Amino acid sequence: MTPKLSVIIPVRNGIKFVGQAIASAQAVPIAPLEILVVDDGSTDGTTELLLGLATEDDRIVVIRRDSDHGASAARNEGIARARADIICFLDADDLLYPEPVARRVEWLQAHPDIVLCFSKYQTMLPDGSIEPTFASYCPRFQKFIGSREGIVELGDGAFGLLYSENPICTTGTMARRDALVALDGFSRDLRQAEDWDLWIRLARRGAVAYSTSIEAQHSARPDSLSTNVEDRTRHIAEVARRHRGFALRHYPRAAFAALSLVEIARGEQHRQAHRNVAACGHYLAGFLLSPNTRYGLEFARSAAVVLGLRSGRIASFEERARIIAERQSESAAQRSTDRNEGPGRVA
């Protein structure tokens, strides 16, 4: 029988945590269900663990690869092998919340025009505390959603919203298999920001929706964070460049917002390299291209460092987590004074 949902989990050397990710997928009350675990050349015993789990649950399919080709290539392998119309992505160190995930699958079955559907999520910090959703970083998206609850269709503005910002966590995101196959999945030439690129391409292809319920947990592990900020910034700029022509023709405000996003990323790159004057300039450019509270605060903090009013020391992981929570609280306060329901249908 054809599965109703295919969950794709890429993993490399994840013996410490992949079992929990798989367990969260197994608990989703959907039948039939398949769980495709793509082992990308693990050397720490992950392969043996996966094969053991597969013998206990025939819903688990282990796809073995001999070498490390990266998470995107592993996800593409899973897409090629998936049998369900609806695919849900799950990173090996993250978790799905079974009941809301199942409800979203049922909603998608009743809305075949939706090619991409993502949800609110939480982040587990290394100390075990829970961080508010990353979408708080995205003022344009939050302004669009406003106070609405349920599953909200983004309407004709989907491309503009997703090109301006990336409010999407890969874990818990669902997409139609035929759309993913038609677009050839994740871009193989991007090692970072490849997820943002795919969401933008899906938004150009069909309708997009967002669930306001928390349906996944992302784990922020220090050893999983990218330390090459320069490389990350370069990929963000490349994705923005690839879609800029279409954006300028159809969503000019989004084009400026994406340019702003690139400038903010460059500001962060220079800040971490202690090039504070250059960082301040990029933060200012980002704010002028797309004025909002978050970017204004980034510029103000950077200017304070240049003027000697605050330290330019790079915060530790735990300190950055606290700062993130503070900024999200600031964003929430801003949204409470500027509600805008915008277009779109609510489920």
Task: State the gist of this model.
This protein is α/β, with parallel strands linked by helices.
Q: Can you characterise this structure?
A:
- The structure is a single chain.
- By secondary structure, this protein is of the alpha/beta class.
- The chain has two domains: 220 residues, Alpha-Beta Complex (Spore Coat Polysaccharide Biosynthesis Protein SpsA, Chain A); 108 residues, no CATH class.
- 48% of the residues lie in helices and 17% in strands.
- It contains 14 helices and ten strands.
- Strands 1, 2, 3, 4, 5, 6, 7, 8, 9 and 10 form a ten-stranded mixed beta sheet that branches.
- Strand 1, helix 1 and strand 2 form a beta-alpha-beta unit.
- The longest helix is centred in the C-terminal third of the chain and has 21 residues.
- The radius of gyration is 20 Å and the shape is globular.
Query: What is the 3D shape?
Result: globular
| Secondary-structure element order, N to C | EHEHEHEEHEEHEHEHHEHHHHHH
CATH superfamily of the largest domain: Spore Coat Polysaccharide Biosynthesis Protein SpsA, Chain A
Domain count: 2
Q: For the record, what CATH class of the largest domain applies?
A: Alpha Beta
Q: Which segments are poorly predicted (pLDDT under 50) over 5 or more consecutive residues?
A: 340-347
Count, helices: 14
What is the strand content? 15-25%
Major sheet details: 10 strands, mixed
The structural class is alpha/beta
Q: Could you tell me the radius of gyration in angstroms?
A: 20 Å
Average predicted local confidence, pLDDT? 89
CATH architecture tag of the largest domain: Alpha-Beta Complex
Q: Percent range for helical residues?
A: 40-55%
Topology, number of strands: 10
Distance between the termini: 29 Å
